[in-house]
Structure prediction request, 207 residues.
Amino acid sequence: MFQKISELETPQIYHHLVHGVVPRPIAWVSTLSKEGISNLAPYSFFSVASVNPPVLTVTAVPSRDKLEKDTLANLLETKECVVNVVTEDVLEIMNESCADFAHNQSEIDALNIETLASEMIQPAGIKAAKVRFECTLRDTIDIAKQPAGGVLILLDVVGIHIDDSVADGTQIDGKTLKALGKLGGNDYSTVNDQITLARPSAPKNSA
Prediction:
């Protein structure tokens, strides 16, 4: 089966992307509005853009009836956020934070989610998150100003919190962390089954 994008409707394209690009890590992003109202929302369009300097990417894809999410609005105003890594033990409460809360309503307060003060920025991190990245806004890139058009958010990492329970010395132990991956629809994946395979060396050319 081959399909031309020009012949597909937006919902079909969305389905193919979120079911085909899997599993995706989940950034549970906490921000503050300029009025001091906390916001918390998960994003599965999430990755690393650079290591030196350390930059994370989160893409906000607005819904049909809301062209700007609270997370993006807060970031544009205050320039700070915490990217909390989603693990198996916070799946249910993370999912509850996906509900369509009012603009002036805090998901953190409404769901009684415990937080911890950040070291270098104002927004608090989620206490249950075993890895938290304190970030400042580097830039935003509008891919398209329309419903389902993405806004690529570039975040400079200024500090990293690693819970001792998932640390192997000074490093994160991925097997202990048990991060979740987002699949299509309402599905998620775990990393309980892992394959370890050393990267090979390129064969030397024989004379």
Summary: The chain is about 15% helix and 35% strand.
